[in-house]
Each structure stands twice: as structure tokens, then as C-alpha cells.
Design goal:
- The chain has 1 helix and 5 strands.
- By secondary structure, the protein is mainly beta.
- It has a single domain, classed as Beta Barrel (OB fold (Dihydrolipoamide Acetyltransferase, E2P)), CATH 2.40.50.
- It has a 5-stranded mixed barrel with strand order 1-2-3-5-4.
Amino acid sequence: MEKGTVKSYDKNCGMGMISRSSEVDVKFYADSIVGRDRVSLTQGDLVWFEVDSIKNLHIAINIRKA
């Protein structure tokens, strides 16, 4: 699991970005947010997540508030 900060999150379109200190930012989708955090997640929140690499694209999955 990695730790990062929600850089942006648009609940209307269901997408956002998480910034990581050691590597490039990763995109995430609302479906990857675990449990009730999907409703309360906002910009600036600290989160734990995993990274899934698909065709050289890095997507955050299993996102939980820290």
C-alpha cells in the first residue's frame, strides 16, 4: 500500500488524481474508493491505495482514507 494526498476529485464525473511523494501522480475512479469514503473523500485528504499498471497507465485502486 502507498500513501498519498487527493490532489483533485470530481464527484460528478467520478474521477480524480492522487499525488505521491516518490513518483508521478496517479488517476483514480470513484469505483476504486472503498466503503463510505466514496461519499466523504475530498481534495487534501490523506489516503492509502494500491497502484494497478495497465498498458503503462498507473491507476490507483483500493483507496481508503488514512
